[in-house]
């Protein structure tokens, strides 16, 4: 059976049945309706409506359809009349398919629950409760006036609005005595402590509430410490541990720990992943110790477990200033005590733990005097209270001068920052800079040089701790510099954590004077000697270190966990590095035949078979002059056997001094440094030199502590005066 419409289109009729339309005027019930799947909407036939005994009337643009109970009204739009009804029928109806007249099939059309689901989706998956409130308060037009039914489940809401719903199942674990249930958890990571601990293993006996906190360096240590604690518990108390509960972390869920529990007959329970409440006892303990204390009864946790009350005689206020008796004072009038700050009670001896700033280490002591009213504080400078002043004091010119000096200091700091803006300050900054490739190559080159020079060896952390205390293992940082021809990265140890007598002794190393440098070039110009300048590559790394020094693996170097580096050579930044290099170089030069000058230990002379040579070296930059070219070649070849040296083909400069060779001799200049000094002044005012006749200057002692930019300029000018401009020496010394 087909249905033809006014547009000459034909549609297949799938079934005939009854339908109820929910309109704004009421329910319109029709019988003998043709069901066509391909026709969107509902088309009403006037002839069919008349046969169903509906009354129809047209007046102006209005159309009225009525039966015995309800009247439906509408207006003409685009030469058509529409009876507005809600999109879905309101109940299931029975229809008879045309293909089979023998059976009747139930076709379920959307009901009121489907309407609720539809509007729930239309308004951004709003809850039915909120939808009812909108309908009740008439918050928007177009919401149907029908009862909204609750939706059983919305797939989209279940996916997008899912929330954590803990399972509140009753616990079958009952505790009647200590050891019935032990709970454990790991806290951290935190900032590194003085002994490089950053995790805390929390263990608690549920019955007695005895809680133990064990600091750890790494998560992997948790299983060993927990095993040791269980053994101590079984040894000290008369109770057996029945169950231990942890989370699913690998520090607890591993073969070593599980095998131990199996041997002891202890049941291991796990909380579900992300269900922290299932191990809530220890989680609350982690959050606050005070809440744990409130869960106890009249007895303390220690008393419930050990049948005796805890001893508090050893407790002292944390951070209290303390005076530690020195047993090994050397002289009768030497101080008999060292100042420290209380950290806690020692676990393995009858005494306390103290942080001693003078020695930068944690010490144990028993003979101590405590000052529990004075505590360790940070080194902060806090301005004092303002005194009462008069209004006219606000216009004191000295205060204006002070503000001006502060402004100049800020300008100078900004200028310095701009000069070095392209140089990264640390490894992380270098790895995100625009020149990452160059800095990374420089790091690879430096690491390769250190490996070639056998600067360090990899050692187990446990072996290192047998030789030096944990706090003396040094951290490192990368220092980056940019030269005209290459990028340079240098690994520097943070030697300020070294302890005298443990990993360093002597630190003195002489440096040459500019007077000796000028004398060397003057002598060469006068006698017509040749001069060659040179640069010792990775100078410090050539010399053996004199004390056991360990460093943590630097960033950018792949080293296995729980490994440290033991230095074989003197790394930059260690306190003795300069001295070790000086001693190493001195021994090499003595073998070659040089002698150290008594006035300047870093200037060496050689006198052999009527030939003479002078060598001047400042750390790793040096100059060599000799009475013959052959002697220079022999000396350079001998030095190359011991050191990696880059010899300059022609003299360009040395230690920041530009050197130009002329017919009259050599010309020293420091143009870049002088321009930098001039640019430090925002006004670029250039003063006359020499000083005017009878010039008298007055010192301003009131601001000597704060006018650091002035002192900075004087220091730089002194360097220039000594190196290349002796003509300004008097003026600079006068200003200094």
Secondary structure elements and pairings:
Blueprint: E1 2-4, E2 10-12, E3 15-22, E4 27-35, H1 46-51, E5 55-59, E6 62-66, E7 71-77, E8 80-81, E9 93-97, E10 105-107, H2 112-122, H3 128-136, H4 155-160, E11 181-187, E12 199-205, E13 211-216, H5 222-236, E14 243-246, H6 255-264, E15 267-270, H7 280-287, H8 289-294, H9 301-306, E16 320-325, E17 337-345, E18 352-356, E19 361-365, E20 368-375, H10 397-419, H11 427-431, H12 436-452, E21 456-460, H13 461-465, E22 476-482, E23 487-493, H14 514-527, E24 530-536, E25 550-551, E26 563-567, H15 577-592, E27 595-596, E28 603-608, E29 611-618, E30 621-626, H16 629-642, E31 645-647, E32 653-654, E33 657-661, E34 666-669, H17 671-679, H18 708-723, H19 729-735
Helix pairs in contact: 18-19
Explain the overall architecture.
This protein is an alpha+beta fold and 736 residues long. The chain folds into 6 domains: 2-109, no CATH class; 116-156, no CATH class; 181-306, 2-Layer Sandwich (Nucleotidyltransferase, domain 5), CATH 3.30.420; 320-375; 435-661, no CATH class; 666-735, no CATH class. The strands form 9 sheets. The chain has a 6-stranded antiparallel beta sheet, with helices on both faces. Strands 13-12-11-14-15 form a 5-stranded mixed beta sheet, with helices on both faces. The protein has a 5-stranded antiparallel beta sheet with strand order 19-18-17-16-20, with no helix packed on it. A hairpin with a 2-residue loop joins strand 32 and strand 33 (657-661). Helix 18 runs antiparallel to helix 19 (729-735). The longest helix has 23 residues, at 397-419. The chain is elongated, with a radius of gyration of 45 Å. Residues 88-110, 292-298 and 380-421 have low confidence and may be disordered.
């Amino acid at each position: 059976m087909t249905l033809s419409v006014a547009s000459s289109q034909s549609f297949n009729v799938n079934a005939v049945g009854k339908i109820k339309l929910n309109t704004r005027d009421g329910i319109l019930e029709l019988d003998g309706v043709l069901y066509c799947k391909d026709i969107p909407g509902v088309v009403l036939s006037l002839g069919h409506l008349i046969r169903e005994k509906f009354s129809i009337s047209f007046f102006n643009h209005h159309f009225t359809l009525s039966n015995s109970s309800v009247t439906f009204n509408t207006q003409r739009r685009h030469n058509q009349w529409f009876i507005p009804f809600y999109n879905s029928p309101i109940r299931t109806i029975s229809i008879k398919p045309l293909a089979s007249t023998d059976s009747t099939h139930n076709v379920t059309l959307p009901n009121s629950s489907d309407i609720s689901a539809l509007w729930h989706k239309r308004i951004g998956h709003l809850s039915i409760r909120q939808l009812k409130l909108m309908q009740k308060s008439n918050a928007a037009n177009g919401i149907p006036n029908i009862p909204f039914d609750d939706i059983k489940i919305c797939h989209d809401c279940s996916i997008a609005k899912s929330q954590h719903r803990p399972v509140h199942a009753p616990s079958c674990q009952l505790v009647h005595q200590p050891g019935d249930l032990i709970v454990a958890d790991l806290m951290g990571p935190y900032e590194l402590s003085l002994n490089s601990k950053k995790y805390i293993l929390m263990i608690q006996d549920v019955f007695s509430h005895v809680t133990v906190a064990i600091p750890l360096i790494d998560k992997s240590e948790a299983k060993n410490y927990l095993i040791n604690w269980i053994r101590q518990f079984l040894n000290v108390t008369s109770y057996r541990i029945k169950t231990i509960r942890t989370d699913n972390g690998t520090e607890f869920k591993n073969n070593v720990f599980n095998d131990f529990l199996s041997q002891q007959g202890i049941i291991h329970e796990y909380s579900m992943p992300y269900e922290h409440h299932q191990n809530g006892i220890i989680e609350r303990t982690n959050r606050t110790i005070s809440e744990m204390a409130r869960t106890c009864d009249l007895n303390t946790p220690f008393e419930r477990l050990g049948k005796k009350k805890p001893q508090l005689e050893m407790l002292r206020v944390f951070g209290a200033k303390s005076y530690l008796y020195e047993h090994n004072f050397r002289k009768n009038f030497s101080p008999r005590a060292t100042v420290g700050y209380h950290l806690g009670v020692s676990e393995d001896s009858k005494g306390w733990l103290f942080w001693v700033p003078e020695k930068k280490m944690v010490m144990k002591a028993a003979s101590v005097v405590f000052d529990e009213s004075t505590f360790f504080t940070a080194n902060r400078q806090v301005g004092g209270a303002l005194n009462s002043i008069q209004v006219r004091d606000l216009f004191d010119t000295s205060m204006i001068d002070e503000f001006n000096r502060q402004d100049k200091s800020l300008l100078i700091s900004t200028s310095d920052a701009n000069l070095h803006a392209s140089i990264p300050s640390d490894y992380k900054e270098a790895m995100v800079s625009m020149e990452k490739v160059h800095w990374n190559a420089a790091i690879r080159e430096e690491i390769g040089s250190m490996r070639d020079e056998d600067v360090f060896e990899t050692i187990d952390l446990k072996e290192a701790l047998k030789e030096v205390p944990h706090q003396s293992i040094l951290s490192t940082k990368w220092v980056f510099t940019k030269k005209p021809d290459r990028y340079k990265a240098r690994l520097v140890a943070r030697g300020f954590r070294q302890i005298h007598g443990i990993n360093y002794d002597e630190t003195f190393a002489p440096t040459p004077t500019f007077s000796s440098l000028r004398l060397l070039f003057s002598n060469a110009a006068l006698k017509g000697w040749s001069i060659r300048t040179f640069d010792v590559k990775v100078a410090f790394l050539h010399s053996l270190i004199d004390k056991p020094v360990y460093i943590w693996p630097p960033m950018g170097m792949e080293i296995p966990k729980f490994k440290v580096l033991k230095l074989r050579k003197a790394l930059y930044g260690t306190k003795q590095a300069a001295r070790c290099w000086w001693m190493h170089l001195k021994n090499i030069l003595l073998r070659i035949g040089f002698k150290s000058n008594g006035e300047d230990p870093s200037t060496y002379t050689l006198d052999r078979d009527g030939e003479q040579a002078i060598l001047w070296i400042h750390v790793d930059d040096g100059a060599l002059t000799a009475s013959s070219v052959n002697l220079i070649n022999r000396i350079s070849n001998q030095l190359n056997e011991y050191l990696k040296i880059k010899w300059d083909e022609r003299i360009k400069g040395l230690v920041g001094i530009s050197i130009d060779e002329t017919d009259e001799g050599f010309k020293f200049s420091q143009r870049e440094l002088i321009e930098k000094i001039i640019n430090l002044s925002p006004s670029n005012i250039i003063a006359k030199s020499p000083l005017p006749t009878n010039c008298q200057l007055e010192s301003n002692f009131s601001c000597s502590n704060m006018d650091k930019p002035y002192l900075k300029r004087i220091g730089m000018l002194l360097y220039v005066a000594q190196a290349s401009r002796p003509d300004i020496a008097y003026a600079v010394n006068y200003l200094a």
